[in-house]
Specification:
The chain is mostly helical. It is 75% helix and 0% strand. α4 runs antiparallel to α5.
């Protein structure tokens, strides 16, 4: 999988961006944050993928979900990721992307229940 991603990035640099570019960048950002341990650079690629969605939003729901559930939360408060994940859920519902709708629901539940402060009674 990693070799396919790197090949995709190499071809994109050689022939230019296409509709899959944001997805490739967010996947590379995940690779950098997780496997390589370079959180700052991975965060940069995640932000770049989100910016590229303004030009081509073929995988908008998937890119927003991956960026906010795996990359952005390394350097930003988790509360900043909840609204984009809800928006990604709505986009997935509108496009019939059932898998991403499910994954957005799981991410939302995880963030909501694990990061909501519990008040003492």
């Amino acid at each position: 999988m990693m070799l396919l991603l790197l090949r995709h990035l190499q071809l994109m640099l050689r022939f230019g961006a296409n509709g899959d570019t944001p997805y490739a960048f967010v996947t590379y950002g995940i690779l950098l944050c997780g496997r390589m341990g370079d959180i700052k650079e991975g965060h940069r690629f995640g932000k770049l993928a989100l910016q590229l969605l303004e030009q081509c939003n073929d995988h908008e729901s998937r890119v927003v979900l991956l960026a906010h559930s795996v990359i952005v939360d390394w350097q930003s408060p988790i509360q900043e990721s909840i609204n984009p994940i809800l928006r990604s859920h709505k986009v997935g519902m509108a496009r019939g992307d059932v898998v991403n709708v499910f994954l957005c629901s799981v991410a939302y539940c995880y963030f909501f229940y694990h990061w909501t402060p519990i008040e003492a009674t």
